[in-house]
């Protein structure tokens, strides 16, 4: 079955070679088996590959590798948070379920740094997060060594692109720091994004895109997003740079529900670095 993927496709970094993607994916699997770290999300893209799955652009950055989940502890200053780095793949919903097993994640904060990924798997993951009553935000988790010991914090200079934006929307409460970048574009056949205008498309291809736009629209409204989010996303073709949402557009699309960061000592506090 072909799956639709939302991923960040920029003019400077697109998938040009399926063999190269497979090679990088194989390398990534090896790193994961060795216990190496982390991943992220991006824009809507439709890309049949790797056994009938569409995938986001894979680069050297962790946010462009398959998504990884980790728990960042910060007691006694705060409860801690979930770090979600990388692109959403067909494995991501199951990986999150395994990560969540035995943890009390109700109302937890989820910190995103991602370039997008699979449309349908992002929708499934987002619905899981909403069922937990999660808070979502954009940032990069960091550990700093101090004289008093390791200190966890979140740096706001992070990216949430493509389907990551719809994961951000899944939070019951949603916060985007001023320095974060939230960027959108439209769904496309990922294996034809390099020369989208010259590529040919079948009726089956168009059916898949239309179907998944419908699924994404329903999810958007279920999560409390506005039609403006879909309009802004679907107006940016793959041959243009992603559109970065302004502060006004973040409010217009209902991606932001609060401008207040929970303070240390409160149950959902996250420690932000300057």
SSE arrangement:
Elements lengths: L3 E4 L10 H17 L10 E2 L21 E5 L8 E5 L6 H9 L8 E5 L2 E3 H13 L3 E4 L1 E7 L2 E7 L3 E3 L1 H6 L4 E3 L5 E4 L18 H20 L4 H8 L8 E2 L2 H6 L22
Helix pairs in contact: 3-5
Shape: globular
Number of separate helices: 7
Distance between the termini: 45 Å
**Biggest sheet layout:** 5 strands, mixed
Question: What is the helix/strand order?
Answer: EHEEEHEEHEEEEHEEHHEH
The percentage helix is: 25-40%
Q: Please indicate the count of domains.
A: 1
Q: Rg to the nearest angstrom?
A: 18 Å
What is the average per-residue confidence, as pLDDT, rounded to a whole number? Answer: 78
Question: Low-confidence parts lasting 5 or more residues at pLDDT below 50?
Answer: 9-60, 263-267
Q: What quaternary form is this?
A: single chain
Strand content: 15-25%
Strand order of the largest sheet: 3-4-5-7-11
Using DSSP, what is the number of strands? 13
Structural class: alpha/beta
Structure description:
This protein is an alpha/beta fold and 274 residues long. It has one domain. Helix content is 29%, strand content 20%. It is built from 7 helices and 13 strands. It has helices at 18-34, 92-100, 119-131, 163-168, 203-222, 227-234, 247-252, and strands at 4-7, 45-46, 68-72, 81-85, 109-113, 116-118, 135-138, 140-146, 149-155, 159-161, 173-175, 181-184, 243-244. The strands form 4 sheets. The protein has a 5-stranded mixed β-sheet. A hairpin with an 8-residue loop joins β3 (68-72) and β4 (81-85). The radius of gyration is 18 Å and the shape is globular. The N and C termini lie far apart (45 Å). Mean pLDDT is 78; it is low at 9-60 and 263-267.
